[in-house]
Amino acid sequence: MANLNALTEFIKSGNRSKATKLTQEALDAGEVPQGILDAMVVGMDVVGERFKCNEIFVPEMLIAARAMKEAMAILEPALVKTGYKPIATAVIGTVQGDLHDIGKNLVSMMWKGASFNVVDLGVNVPAEKFVAAIKEHNATLVGLSALLTTTMPAMQTVMDAIRAEDFVGVKVLIGGAPITQNYADQIGADAFAADAASAVDAARKLLAN
Ligand code: B1M
Questions:
Q1: Fold match between 4-81 and 89-208?
Q2: Which CATH superfamily is domain 4-81 in?
C-alpha cells in the first residue's frame, strides 16, 4: 500500500523526484488512480492557501506546480483508462497586445492541479482565437489575463466576442495586476481573481452555479 499522505507532502514541498517516484510506486501497487490524484490535489490546495496567506511566494508555488505537473504526466494514462473526466475544460490566455505570462502560467498550473483540463493559448491572444478555442474544446471556463493598463480594453473585446456567440454555460474569469472586481463588473466578466490560488476557488464556485 503506497503512502499517499507522503505524496501530498512531496507536492506541497515541490519535491518532484520523490513525487514522481511515489506516483509510479502507487500505480504499481494497484492504488486507484483517482485516489492518487486526490492526494496531489490536496497538496496543491494547501500550496494555494499558503500562497494566499503570503506564507510562500511565486517561486515555491512554481516549484510545487512543476512537481504536480510531472507526477500528473505519470498518472494521466492510468486516469484516462479509468474513464476519468476533468471537472471542466478551461481556455486561458493573455489578451492581445500583452506578452506577460508568468501570472497566467501560474493560474494555468493551479487549474491543472485542481483537475481542470486546461488549453493554454499563450500570450497576445486575439478575441477570435478565444472564441475558436471555446468551440473547438467545448470549454465552459475562460481565463483572461492582462498586466498592462493599455491591454485591459482587450478584455472587453474578448467579452464582447464571447457574448456575441450566445454560448451556454461559458463563464469568464479575469485577472492580472491592474484588474479589479470593479473592472470585471464593468466589462461583464463572471468573476475576478486577485491571484492564482483565488482563481481556483473562483473557478470552482463559477462552475458549481
Ligand atoms: Co512588464 N510591465 N512590460 N515585462 N512587467 C509590468 C506589468 C509593469 C507594472 C512594470 C512597471 O512599470 N512597474 C508595467 C505596466 C504598467 C502599466 O501598464 N500600468 C510593465 C510595462 C510598462 C511593460 C512594457 C510596456 C515595458 C516596455 O517595453 N516599455 C513591456 C510590454 C510588453 C507587452 O506585453 N506588450 C513589458 C515587458 C515585460 C517583459 C517581457 C520584460 C517581462 C514579462 C515576461 C513574461 O511575462 N514572460 C515583464 C515583467 C516581468 C514585468 C513585471 C516586472 C513582473 C510581472 C510578473 O510576472 N509578475 C511587472 C511589474 C510587477 O508586476 N512588479 C511588469 C509576477 C506574476 C506572478 O504576477 O503577472 O501580476 P502577475 O500575476 C498575479 C496576479 O496578477 C494574478 O495571479 C498572479 C499571482 O498569483 N493573475 C491572475 C494574473 N493573471 C491572472 C488571471 C486570472 C486570475 C489571476 O484569471 C484568469
A1: no
A2: Methionine synthase domain (1.10.1240.10)
What is the whole-number distance in angstroms between the Cα of residue 95 and the centre of ligand 1? 12
Q: Would you kindly state where each structural domain of the chain is located, as residue ranges?
A: 4-81, 89-208
pLDDT in tens, 17-66: 999 999 999 999 999 998 998 999 899 999 989 998 999 999 999 999 99
**Angle at 138 (CA atoms; ends 134, 142), nearest 5 degrees:** 45
Residues forming a β-bridge with 125: 95
CATH superfamily entry for domain 89-208: Cobalamin-binding domain (3.40.50.280)
Residue of the nearest CA to atom 39 in ligand 1?
100
Residue-wise pLDDT tens digits, 79-116: 878 878 899 999 999 999 999 998 999 899 889 988 99
Q: Which residues line ligand 1 (CB under 6 A)?
A: 58, 92, 97-104, 106-107, 143-145, 147-150, 173-178, 193, 195-196, 199
Atom 35 of ligand 1, residue of closest alpha carbon: 98
Asked whether the beta carbons of 100 and 55 are under 8 A apart, the reply is: no
